[in-house]
Amino acid sequence: MNIYDIAVKDAKGSDVSLSEYRGKVLLVVNTATQCGFTPQYADLQKLYETYRGQGFEILDFPCNQFGSQAPGTNEEIGGFCAGRFGITFRQFAKTEVNGEDESPLYTWLKGRKGGIGGANIKWNFTKFLIDRKGEVVARYAPTKTPAALASSIARLLEDEG
Predict the structure, then answer these.
(1) Measured in Å, how far apart are the chain's first and last C-alpha atoms?
(2) Which of 35, 44, 87, 109 is catalytic?
(3) Is 63 considered catalytic here?
(4) Could you tell me the domains of the chain?
(5) Residues 6 or more apart from 25 whose CB is under 8 A from it?
(6) Does residue 136 contact residue 152 with C-beta atoms inside 8 Å?
């Protein structure tokens, strides 16, 4: 199995095959609208604006598993992010990233890059960087700012472009 075999739900509840992103550099992020890290949305948008024309995509998966910090419907979350941060990258349906009901995407991601202290996602804004071949090249803790990922993203886009 690879990332392109996985389907996820978009914010409207429709199935989306991740094969749509074949050949792109991806940053997969579990997000929340009421978290101390929520301001990272602004930097994620800057990354997206800088690199989207070169084959870069951000896949945003709101998650309410950590302190119930992503309340509201998918539509409310989308409205908040667009209004407050000008988000134009794709947001998906609220997703569980750990446990019995976790998304197959997160099962797959954690199987590739477990992280410090085990595979489970510890908090909102954990980030996975995926190359154009669909391989997970890095996992970043929530404290790693999106701006700090710019050079790694640029390198992947240059190396494989």
Answers:
(1) 24
(2) 35
(3) no
(4) 26-160 (3.40.30.10)
(5) 51, 55, 56, 57, 129, 130, 131, 132, 153, 156, 157, 160
(6) no
The span from the CA of 156 to the CA of 58, in Å, is: 14
How far is 108 from 125, CA to CA, in rounded Å?
17
- 146: which DSSP letter? G
Measure the CA–CA gap between 28 and 61, rounded to whole angstroms: 8
pLDDT digit string, tens, across residues 18-31 = 999 999 999 999 99
pLDDT (tens digit, 9 = 90+) per residue, 61-105?
999 999 888 888 889 888 888 989 999 999 999 999 999 999 999
pLDDT at 115: 57
Which residue is associated with the tokens 């099962």? Answer: 107
pLDDT at 160: 56
3 state DSSP class of 33: coil
* Bridge partner residues of 30 (DSSP): 61
In this prediction the pTM is 0.93
